[in-house]
Predict the 3D structure of the following.
Amino acid sequence: MTDNPVPSGIDAERVTKWLDENVEGCVGPYGFDLIAGGHSNLTFSVRPAEGPRLVLRRPPLGQVLATAHDMEREHRIITGVGSTSMPVPRAVGLCTDIEVNGAPFYVMVHVDGPVLHSDEEAAEVDEIERASLGVDVIEVLAQLHSIEPDDVGLGDLGKREDYLGRQLRRWSRQWEQSKTRDLQAMEDVQALLAAEMPEQVGSAIVHGDYRLGNMIVGRGKVCAVLDWELCTLGDPLADVGYLMNNWVAPGETQASSSAPTLAGGFGEREHLLAHYAELTRRDVSAIDYYRAFSFWRLAAIVEGVLKRYLGGVMGDSEADTEYFRLQVEDLATRALELLRP
């Protein structure tokens, strides 16, 4: 064990006692490290004296929007989805007693492999593996969307119908509660999304943040899909539109902080979209609407991140708040461009 200082968000003594009593096969003392890259729920690496390496997830420090960081719900989702052949980390414990660590948390087994947050990291992956990984990413998404929620205990996770309407209402509220300034482009996009909403055909488990930056990968495959906090039931094409936005081709300008596909070799956006349509038999002709919706929703999410950083509730992390502010504006502009070609 190392003598690294315990990061904010972990009560080492009480969490150690809870882990010893509730996670089979693990014995303390434990080392705790904040895993970099999270802008929402806090994620920690847990290194036991004996037993497998673990990962602990908890809400950010301080006050957060209601229902935005429900650990029990997230634990339930990965447990349900993990009962299938979907690649997700294995959940091993849930603590809802806030006396232990100041907030609920859950623990899962660590999955080995890199997370491709950038094109620099992606460029280190063999080109043959990149091509294989691109195909697997879309096939895993099609697999997720083929799961019947009732079969994995998630049938009451959310309403299946009117997904886009519900999301528009939710993220409109989020924007109003989180915005740090007025931004006309966000209001214009919201009005267009409401006016041009396509009819929902079918429903599925929707991940809500499905991209390479939320996956552990290896040998040209998805080893684990991470970050299920935005998961619900609804229109699966919302996941597809979001993935297409993040599937940035070499030479394109990225719209978010994570664009590993800029390295090239992962397959073209249009080919992945066609493969998804072939696998699921879903009509993807309105995908530009879903892409615009995803840009707008992400803008609302990033604005919330900005507000939390400004409020000092994101633990030990530091951030360039001006970057987040400009990102919100760019995302709103891109959404408008898709809705007004």
Summary: The first helix runs from residue 12 to 22. Strands lie at 27-34, 42-50, 54-58, 91-95, 105-109, 204-206, 215-218, 221-225, 232-234.
